[in-house]
């Protein structure tokens, strides 16, 4: 190959390389590959057609591109979009900036729009996840408009139907009113006719009475009736005279009894009764030991009861000592004798209470149990009592001799307030369950868990019902 042709070929290759470099630099500059960039993240539930390489605009100005879209690991998570912007925009990108997916025009490509933050927010750094707003789909807006139009049409139809029914009701009431007026007019006419008939009958009766016709007329015009009434009055006077004579006879009998000295005999009988009463009172005082002496059957009974009480107290103290003795502790625990008052909240949380038994528990949130009263204190609601009744159903199959613990957790607040609330809640639930299900108070204990100062992870706010039941035998 001649030297001139080699020179031309070299010039062509060098020119091609220069043009390729210029084009590569121009493309890289257009995509801002050579500028200082900051990578940020945003999360969306719906990507809405956004793809890798899509533009990123900050306050409407091209600032970068979408680098990657990560698929969520489960349905509850969201898509994670990684994008970059030039470092020039860090002065307006703040922690309160928000990202959204928008269309470039009405039906153009999707791009990521990032709104500038405010002076109250901190400047963003690489790797920060900013807030996001879910995209609005045109199809969803059209569907909502269709639903709204349908609801409006249904409302118009309902109103039209209601107006028609109202008009029909008014017409029916008008017809009923006309019928009622017609019936009332007929009844008034009948009443007037009946009144006239009654007036004629009354005039006829009065005329007959005056003329002595009929039973009433004959009685009013017959002189023999007067004579009979006169004889009846005379007979009454004779009866009164006989009653007076009988009263005189009774007065004479009373005088005769006084002359027979019956009063002294009655006094002797009363004296004997008084002596018998005194003897009975003396016998009762002797039985009770109230005559000043230290003896008496009642005093002996009192002494016997006092000795029995002291013996039972000593036996109870001995039993309590045996329960705490390491040789007999296991025996009493297996027999169902528990001293719940001696168990602290810390020991209970550490699992030192009855580790050999199975723990059966139910949980109820505080929002389902309590409500603030007018006085500003929490109280157990009626719905809360129903929740507790339902939660107690798994425990009814076990004996009432098993230890029953009521755990209580209080929600946010300072430590003293949470401690008091947890204890008050446990006591309210304990009192209700003891009354409702006839639990043995000695086998029920309250555990205000906030007393220990330990915070549950995750935080808890409610009441737990725990039963320590014997493990099933294999």
Could you please describe the fold and organization of this structure?
With 474 residues, the chain is α+β, with helices and mostly antiparallel strands. Among the domains are: 31-136; 338-469, 2-Layer Sandwich (60s Ribosomal Protein L30, Chain: A). The protein is 52% helix and 16% strand. The protein is built from 10 helices and 13 strands. It has helices at residues 3-30, 138-210, 214-221, 223-259, 262-288, 297-324, 329-335, 345-349, 382-391, 415-437, and strands at residues 37-44, 55-58, 61-70, 79-86, 98-103, 110-114, 131-133, 358-365, 370-372, 378-380, 404-409, 444-448, 462-469. A 7-stranded mixed sheet has the order 1-4-3-2-6-5-7, with no helix packed on it. Strands 8-13-11-12 form a 4-stranded mixed sheet. A two-stranded antiparallel sheet has the order 9-10. The chain is flat and about 185 Å long. It starts with a helix and ends in a 5-residue tail after the last strand.
Which regions are unreliable across 5 or more consecutive residues at pLDDT < 50? none
What spatial form do the alpha-carbon principal axes imply? flat
The ordered H/E elements are HEEEEEEEHHHHHHHEEEHEHEE
Mean pLDDT equals 78
Major sheet, described briefly? 7 strands, mixed
- Proportion of strand residues: 15-25%
């Amino acid at each position: 190959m001649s030297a001139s042709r080699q020179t031309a070929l070299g010039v062509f290759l060098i020119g091609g390389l220069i043009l390729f470099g210029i084009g590569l630099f121009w493309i890289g500059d257009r995509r801002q590959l050579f500028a200082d960039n900051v990578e940020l993240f945003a999360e969306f539930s719906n990507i809405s057609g956004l793809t890798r390489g899509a533009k990123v605009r900050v306050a409407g100005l091209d600032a970068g591109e979408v680098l990657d879209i990560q698929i969520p690991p489960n349905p509850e998570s969201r898509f994670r979009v990684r994008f970059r912007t030039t470092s020039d925009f860090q002065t307006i990108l703040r922690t309160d900036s928000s990202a959204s997916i928008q269309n470039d025009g009405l039906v153009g490509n999707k791009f990521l729009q990032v709104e500038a933050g405010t002076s109250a927010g901190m400047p963003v750094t690489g790797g920060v996840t900013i807030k996001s707003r879910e995209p609005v789909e045109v199809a969803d807006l059209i569907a909502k408009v269709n639903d709204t139009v349908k609801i409006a049409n249904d409302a118009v139809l309902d109103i039209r139907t209601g107006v028609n029914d109202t008009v029909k009701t008014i017409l029916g009431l008008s017809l009923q009113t006309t019928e009622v007026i017609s019936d009332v007019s007929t009844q008034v006419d009948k009443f007037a006719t009946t009144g006239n008939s009654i007036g004629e009958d009354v005039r006829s009766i009065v005329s007959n009475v005056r003329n002595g016709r009929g039973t009433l007329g004959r009685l009013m015009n017959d002189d023999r009736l007067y004579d009979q009434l006169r004889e009846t009055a005379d007979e009454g006077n004779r009866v009164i005279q006989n009653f007076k004579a009988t009263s005189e006879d009774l007065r004479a009998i009373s005088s005769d009894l006084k002359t027979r000295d019956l009063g002294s005999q009655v006094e002797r009988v009363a004296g004997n009764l008084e002596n018998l009463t005194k003897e009975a009172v003396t016998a009762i005082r002797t039985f009770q030991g109230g005559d000043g002496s230290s003896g008496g059957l009642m005093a002996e009974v009192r002494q016997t009861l006092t000795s029995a009480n002291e013996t039972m107290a000593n036996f109870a103290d001995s039993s309590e000592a045996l329960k705490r003795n390491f040789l007999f502790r296991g025996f009493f625990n297996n027999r169902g004798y528990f001293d719940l008052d001696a168990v602290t909240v810390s020991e209970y949380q550490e699992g030192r209470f009855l580790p050999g038994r199975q723990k059966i528990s139910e949980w109820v949130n505080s929002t389902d149990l309590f409500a603030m009263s007018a006085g500003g204190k929490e109280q157990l609601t009626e719905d809360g009592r129903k929740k507790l009744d339902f939660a107690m159903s798994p425990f009814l199959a076990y004996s009432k001799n098993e230890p029953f613990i009521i755990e209580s957790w209080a929600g946010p607040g300072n430590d003293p307030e949470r401690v008091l609330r947890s204890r008050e809640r446990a006591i309210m639930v304990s009192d209700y369950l003891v009354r409702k299900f006839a639990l043995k108070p000695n086998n029920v204990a309250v555990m205000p868990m906030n007393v220990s100062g330990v915070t549950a992870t995750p935080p808890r706010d409610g009441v737990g019902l725990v039963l320590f039941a014997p493990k099933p035998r294999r």
